[in-house]
From TrEMBL, chain B:
Tagged with keyword Transmembrane: yes
Subcellular location(s) per record: Cell inner membrane; Cell membrane
Source organism per UniProt: Fraserbacteria sp. (strain RBG_16_55_9)
InterPro entries reported for this sequence: MetI-like, MetI-like_sf
Assigned protein family: Belongs to the binding-protein-dependent transport system permease family.
Sequence intervals crossing the membrane: 20-42, 62-88, 100-125, 145-167, 198-217, 246-264, 297-321, 341-369, 381-404, 410-427, 471-493, 513-535
Lineage of producing organism: Bacteria, Candidatus Fraseribacteriota
Signal peptide: none
Cellular component aspect of the GO annotation: plasma membrane
Name of the protein in question: ABC transmembrane type-1 domain-containing protein
Record key words, sorted: Cell inner membrane, Cell membrane, Membrane, Transmembrane, Transmembrane helix, Transport
Length: 349, 549
């Protein structure tokens, strides 16, 4: 449905060199797919959406929508793409009522228009609110109007630019599942951009992690968590510690033992020092006065406790334990890493 | 991240996909606005060396001293008075602060040349004050109002409101937790004021100070009436009395240089420091108790209000009553002959409406280009088009005169030329008002309209234009008001017999027919009041566009 090939986009700046905001990026989104794009701020997430929407013209590469080349913004301007977008702060027209906002993208006879507006307002649960002005609505209601306005002309593709970031935490979760249900029902193709991991995990069929304008990994949420492709992804998604080790014949040797390798041995042989990804939920601990690690801090967060452990070498790693378990600070523990295959990265990568 | 050479070439090529329908008009308008100034400088560069030598040896040194003295005095006076009044109404327990807050900007309703005329007639030789004293049987000599002191006094009264408005706004936004933090660090109240409040007011003070300085550099009415020689008054004399255009061009170029130096200096003050606290102010700062200082503070306020507002209005009203009592004047003013007041009013209205409409219309594409496409070219054009800003009206008229005489002699002494002068002179006001209005309309609204199937022009017309209406109104009124009160350029450029209200006031007063000037003057003031009120209200209601956020 959407296909990007080697797209780059740089904004002109006053200096001699433009700043690359995106790319080169290649990406394919399938019909009716829900894709979540996750990245830190300034990673080019919004730019990606703007390129697809036709609000920016990429400098290089090719953009395709439903098999049609739409790279050239002059030839296929935003209004001719059939792409809908919900903006971060909704961009509701303040001088128009809810009804007029939703009807804005509709053309044709008044009767058909009216019917469609009513239909869409009902879809988002705002029937009877058509006469209000945007400033008279709560944040959640504004969000629904923005969605209704985007959906009214029946776009082939819906782009959501951090649409929930202006809502408070409870409402955010609720709106997310509601919006998801609506869009699933309409069988839309959707890209959601966010910097919130939970949102990205919960949203998509697949998710893409964006960093400094490039896609670091694209895949199912679980795969990205358990098998991050780059050190950035490993660190950015979830909590991560990195254990330093050296190459040996069986794999990688660390102070916690030897880890066998998941990645191909050929790559390993080229580097001497490696970092092994350790997540807190992989680390099992047992109180043991003769154990090698010391609990230096612990953080209580309701259901779970996060223990910070110091290894003999001074390196620290974390362990996540149920709150029912209570180990005092300063006590010695023995630890075991529940890991079949190690995910590792050459140091300094 | 840097871009490879190849990518940069591509950027260049693809971003040449600019909307030429917007770009070309913007460039032409911007260049058009700069033509008079550029041509004036060109004229000055072709002035014969012996003329320069003569000027530099005779007039220039004295003029520079005179002009700088006046500018310095006015700037210091306006800064002091404006800061003091702003502090009194914002930070002390002065009574009736709410009323005073608006009363302090009231002197803006009287154009400064009117104030000067009233002062000259009141304090001058054989003036109202002397007559009043004589009627009580007192023989006293009134201190002279003419010269540096008098001109500076009147100009301070005319400029302090600008400083006051900017400083007050800055005090209002001030984050008082900064003061609490300073006190918590062990600073005394006075030390906190000197080390925290005052430095944070530097941007406001420097902006206000520059406004006051530019105002006195470019003033024509006050210095001419009160006979203080400055660049402007001498240039005017060169053009009207002795008609020496090359000397006028040379002096004009020097005045441009002086103005540029001033603006450059303002840029220096700021440096790298940041003065704006990002946080919105939370709790209002505690008020200072004036105690026994309340009496002197109130006395000062009374003096300022009398001097800036009541005295001129009183003098004008006195003449107005007089004009009714003298039958000939009465007939002359209110009759149906060509000299009738209504005629001047109509003239003033016609040119001001035309100038305001034209200025706003021309400023719209330029404002749009510079706000929406923040690239080098649109910024340059916005900058170029503001050439007229902060330059004296006399210079604009002078430059325009040169251009017209050289290239379009048919335009000489036409109403159209007067309108053009207004447009060039007040274009920056329209551009700035529209620009700040546009900046408040988020670009994503237009993008949203595009994604909903509307073409660029339709998106602009249906979304941006309606939201821009307050800014359009505001900038139109701003230009209209300025044009309505414009004096020097009109005096220099108008066709014979085409008198506007200010011109009528000016000529009547300079011949001593004050009674004839009064009704026109009060009419001008009466017209200004509702417009100024609208502008003032509008500026405090700014930001309503995004208020739903």
């Amino acid at each position: 449905m959407i296909r990007l090939e080697d797209v780059t986009q740089a904004y002109p700046s006053s200096g001699r060199e433009g700043r690359v905001a995106l790319g080169p990026v290649s990406l394919e989104v399938f019909e009716q797919e829900f894709l979540a794009v996750l990245g830190p701020s300034g990673s080019g997430k919004t730019t990606l959406l703007r390129v697809i929407a036709g609000l920016e013209m990429p400098q290089t590469g090719r953009v395709e929508l439903a098999g049609l080349d739409v790279t050239n913004v002059k030839r296929t301007p935003p209004e001719k793409r059939g792409v809908g977008m919900v903006f971060q702060d909704y961009a509701l027209f303040p001088h128009l009522t809810v009804w007029e906002n939703v009807a804005f993208g509709l053309s044709g006879r008044n009767g058909a228009k009216r019917a469609r507006v009513e239909e869409v307002l009902e879809l988002v649960g705002l029937q009877g609110m058509g006469d209000r002005y945007p400033y008279e609505l709560s944040g959640g209601e504004q969000q629904r109007v923005a969605l209704a306005r985007t959906l009214a002309p029946n776009p082939r593709v819906v782009l959501l630019d951090e649409p929930f970031s202006n809502l408070d935490a409870d409402l955010r979760r609720e709106m997310r599942s509601e919006v998801k249900a609506i869009l699933r029902k309409l069988q839309s193709t959707v890209i959601l951009v966010t910097h919130d991991q939970e949102e990205a995990f919960d949203w998509g069929d697949r998710m893409a992690v964006l960093n400094r304008g490039r896609i670091e990994q694209l895949g199912a949420s679980e795969e990205i968590y358990t098998a991050p492709a780059t050190r950035f992804v490993a660190e950015f998604i979830g909590r991560a510690d990195f254990l330093i080790g050296r190459r040996c014949s069986e794999g990688i040797e660390t102070e916690l033992g030897v880890f066998s390798l998941k990645s191909s041995a050929g790559r390993v042989s080229q580097h001497e020092t490696w970092e092994i990804l350790i997540r807190p939920d992989m680390v099992e601990i047992e109180p043991d006065p003769k154990g090698g690690a010391v609990i230096v801090a612990r953080r209580f967060s309701g259901i779970q406790k996060l223990y910070c452990l110091e290894l003999p070498s001074g390196q620290r790693i974390h362990s996540l334990q149920p709150s029912t378990r209570n180990l005092p600070e300063g006590s010695r523990v023995r630890l075991k890493v529940l890991l079949k295959k190690a995910i590792c990265f050459p140091q300094g990568s | 991240m840097a871009v490879s050479a190849r990518a940069r070439r591509l950027i260049k090529r693809r971003s040449s996909a600019r909307p030429w329908g917007l770009w070309l008009p913007s460039a032409l308008i911007a260049l058009g606005m700069a033509v008079p100034l550029v041509y004036l400088l060109y004229q000055a560069s072709s002035v014969a060396p012996d003329v320069w030598a003569r000027l530099l040896q005779t007039r220039v040194p004295g003029l520079i001293v005179n002009t700088l003295l006046l500018t310095g005095l006015v700037t210091i006076g306006a800064l002091g008075l404006g800061l003091l009044l702003a502090w009194l109404v914002e930070r002390t327990d002065l009574p009736a602060r709410k009323i005073l807050r608006s009363l302090f900007i009231a002197p803006l309703i009287v154009p400064c040349y009117l104030v000067a005329i009233c002062y000259a007639a009141f304090f001058g030789a054989n003036g109202l004050l002397e007559k009043m004293l004589q009627s009580f049987g007192w023989e006293m000599s009134v201190p002279s109002i003419y010269g540096l002191g008098g001109a500076a006094f009147v100009l301070i009264l005319a400029t302090y409101p600008y400083v006051y408005v900017i400083v007050r706004a800055s005090l209002e936004r001030f984050d008082s937790t900064l003061l609490d933090a300073a006190r918590a660090c062990g600073a005394s109240r006075v030390r906190a004021a000197l080390r925290i409040t005052l430095p944070l007011l530097v941007p406001a003070l420097s902006a206000g100070g520059v406004l006051a300085a530019l105002y006195s550099l470019s003033d024509f009415g006050v210095v001419t009436t009160l006979r203080q020689q400055t660049f402007v008054s001498v240039i005017y004399q060169q053009l009207t009395g002795r008609y020496d255009p090359s000397a006028a061009a040379a002096l004009g170029a020097l005045l441009v240089l002086l103005t540029l130096l001033l603006l450059w200096g303002q840029g220096r003050i700021w440096g790298r420091r940041r003065f704006a606290s990002e946080k919105p102010s939370g709790r209002p700062a505690p008020l200072v108790r004036l105690g026994r200082w309340k009496i002197p503070a109130l006395a000062l306020i009374v003096v300022v209000l009398i001097a800036g507002l009541l005295l001129p209005l009183g003098v004008l009203s006195f003449w107005l009553v007089n004009s009714w009592l003298i039958p000939q004047t009465n007939a002359l003013l209110w009759g149906t002959s060509g000299n009738a007041l209504l005629n001047y009013l109509l003239n003033s209205f016609t040119v001001s409406v035309a100038a305001a409409s034209l200025a706003v219309l021309l400023a719209l594409p330029l404002a749009y280009a510079s706000v929406r496409y923040r690239d080098r070219w649109s910024q340059t054009w916005a900058w170029v088009s503001q050439a007229g800003q902060s330059l004296p009206g006399v210079l604009i008229a002078l430059g325009l005169l040169f251009v017209v005489l050289r290239f379009l002699p048919g335009l000489y002494a036409t109403v159209l030329l007067v309108i053009l002068a207004y447009v060039v002179r007040f274009f920056p006001q329209a551009l700035q008002a529209l620009g700040s209005g546009l900046a408040q309309v988020p670009a994503c609204l237009e993008e949203g309209a595009r994604l909903l199937g509307h073409r660029p022009l339709s998106a602009f017309a249906r979304v941006t234009l309606p939201l821009l209406r307050p800014a359009l109104m505001g900038s139109w009124i701003l230009v209209f008001l300025s044009a309505l009160r414009e004096l020097p350029a009109t005096l220099l450029l108008r066709p014979a017999g085409f008198d506007t209200l200010p011109v009528r006031i000016w000529t009547a007063a300079s011949e001593g027919f004050y009674a004839q000037a009064a009704p026109a003057a009060l009419g001008l003031i009466g017209l200004s009041i509702p417009l100024l009120f609208w502008l003032h209200r509008g500026s405090s209601a700014q930001g309503s566009v995004k208020s739903y956020d």
